[in-house]
Amino acid sequence: MSISVPMRVPELEPAGTVVVGPPRRSLLSRVVGRTGGVLVQVAVVAIALFWLFPTVGLAVASLRDTADNSASGWWTVFTAPSQLTLDNYASLLQNETILRSLWNTILITVPSTLLVVIIGAFGAYALAWLEFPGRDWVFVIVVALIVVPVQVAIIPDARLFGALGMYGTIPAVVAFHVAFGLPFAIFLLRNFFAAIPRDLLEAARMDGGSEFTIFRKVVLPIGWPAVASLGIFQFLWVWNDLLVALVFATSDNAPITYALREQMRAFSSNVDVIGPGAFVSMAVPLIVFFAFQRYFVQGVLAGSVK
Fold first, then answer.
1. Distance of alpha carbon 54 from alpha carbon 70, whole angstroms
2. Do both 81 and 92 map to the same domain?
3. Is the overall model pTM greater than 0.85, yes or no?
4. Do 61 and 75 touch, CB atoms closer than 8 A?
5. % helix, strand, coil for the chain, step of 5
6. Is residue 132 located within the same domain as residue 191?
7. Count of beta carbons in the 10 Å neighbourhood of residue 194
8. Nearest to 142 by CA among 178, 187, 177
9. pLDDT at residue 286 in the model
10. Which of 295, 304, 303, 265 is nearest to 97 (CA)?
11. CB-neighbour burial class of residue 149 (10 A; exposed 0-12, middle 13-18, buried 19+)
12. Domain identity same for 190 and 208
């Protein structure tokens, strides 16, 4: 006679329903996880303060007179705030050389930026969406021109401008900046425009839109972040340029960088001009950057995510 012994069968759980807790973290990893965010924030703040340290020094020095700047460092203003004065800026507004150089900088920077953005946008659209013989070779040449250094073209362009009778004029400086800004502009905008869905352009063509209408009403609104980023880059490059101004400009039509360099020859006696002039020269690009910062970030991050 056989005796049956009841066996207990364990209950089976469906796959994927068993809750498994997170792996046990070590003490060191838990400490890093809790303090890592704080350490990163402290490091970012420290780097930002270190980066802004020269800017703060320049701003303070521009608000002190020549005697105080010669007698002590700018940091002494924190113990003697009475040293701060706006006399240097009042004198700067009466300095014809600096005022003329600021106006020349605007006359050089604004056309150079607008021409590069406008011509670059048209060229980028043509290379991205128009079919014509040799389009790929044109794009290859544009990419190759990006790596050409400015110093290579200084002597040939100087001879060309001299033959045309425009050497030493503002149009010569603008033409040089436009010529060297276009390759990068076309390359940047072409890659952005090429990522636009073809269906949008085909739908616009089916509705009877011309290429200019498609470019103006479809491509530009979508590509505005890239266009704004290009405008910021070009504005900063041209505004802060010194090499091209030294070669192609004269003292009568030179930008602010050229004028400040001339003032550096007698630094000790021209601190009251160099300080506020340099701060104004630096403040204008900062204002432009922060005014278009939102578009700049969108243009830089465009295409990084789907």
1. 17
2. no
3. no
4. no
5. 75, 0, 25
6. yes
7. 13
8. 187
9. 84
10. 265
11. exposed
12. yes
Nearest to 61 by CA among 50, 80, 77, 48: 77
What is the domain range of residue 169? 88-301
How many domains in the chain? 2
- Greatest pairwise CA separation for the chain in angstroms: 124
Q: Which of 47, 63, 85 is the last residue of a domain?
A: 85
In the predicted model, what is the mean pLDDT of residues 181-190?
A: 91
Lowest mean pLDDT among 117-126, 192-201, 290-299: 290-299
Decide: 117 and 227 in contact? Cβ < 8 Å. Answer: yes
Token pair in block for residue 297: 């970030």
Whether 263 and 273 have beta carbons less than 8 Å apart is answered as: yes
Say yes or no to pLDDT of 306 above 50. Answer: no
For 26-67, what is each residue's pLDDT tens digit? 655 665 566 556 777 788 888 888 888 888 888 888 888 877
> CA 60, CA 285: separation in Å to the nearest integer?
19
> Residue 88 is inside which H or E element, if any?
helix 87-92
> Does residue 1 lie within any of the structural domains?
no
**Cα 280 to Cα 293: distance, rounded to the nearest angstrom:** 20
Residue 21 has, within 13 A of its CA and on its CB side, a CA count of 3
User: Does 26 reside within a domain?
Assistant: no
d(CA 274, CA 198): 53
* Same domain assignment for residues 111 and 238: yes
Model confidence at 303: pLDDT above 50: no
Residue 263, pLDDT > 50, answer: yes
Supply the DSSP string of 94-145, one letter for each residue: T-HHHHHHHHHHHHHHHHHHHHHHHHHHHHHHHHHH---TTHHHHHHHHHHH
